[in-house]
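Field guide to reading this record: the first block holds the primary sequence, the second block holds the structure written as discrete tokens, and the final block holds curator observations. Each block starts with its own label. This record concerns GntR family transcriptional regulator, catalogued under organism Actinoallomurus bryophytorum.

BLOCK 1 — SEQUENCE
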Amino acid sequence: MAVSKWRSIADDLIKKIDGGEIARGAQLPTELELQVEYDASRNTVRDAIKWLTQRQLVVTHAGRGTFVSRKITPFAVELSPQPGLGPGGGDGSAYVASAQIQNRRPSTSDPRVEIRKATGLVARQLQIEEGARVVSRHQQRLIDDDPWSLQTSFYPMAFVNRGAERLVDAVDVEEGVVKYLEQELGLTQAGYQDLIAVRPPDQEESVFFDLPENASVTLIELSRTAYADSGEPIRFTVTVYPADRNLLYYNIGDVPEARIEVDGPA
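BLOCK 2 — STRUCTURE
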């Protein structure tokens, strides 16, 4: 049975990608160039590109062209409590430790700090009045210099008024905000509640994560509300993970040390 023209074009492009002739992340030739190279019609070339796109081998960005998808090595993220850090403690240090175990290079942006009015979910989770001021700390997190997750934490402005003034500094809190609040305000994080949802990315997220225009990659949104031993909410953190590059897992109870194995860079 003869192979259709568009499929033979798609197969040849795959060979070029696998063989390194067209590098990962590189732009494919334009439609016109492909028409000339393969002596094919515009519709035939488009069918070939559509087939590659459906298999997430290439991505098309409006006004920019079609690019070969980068090979993504998933990053395993442990969401359960870390030994010695308490329930929900050390989110940042756990992220760094997980990356190092997997031979990956973690990095984070300096926090973008804003003082905002609490609305809707933020006000409810922090148990404060709508319109009350909160401090938001937003960071971009990368693995091997590639965008991997976005995280925004909200804290009552009352914490700043009580002495936790470093919350409004646009620099990383080296010891971690959880430990800082314990040291400065005596607020010991005793537990947390997670809500996990799946949703499509918005435009800003699509640009940051370099996602396909058709939004075929969904986002995993983890909303974590942490509580002090008094029952007082001390932070509300929203972390966004693209599903194409993250594996989320929990360890509950007595679990062997070799828990999740993900092939990463040697």
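BLOCK 3 — OBSERVATIONS
The mean pLDDT is 86.
Residues 182 and 188 are 5 Å apart (CA to CA).
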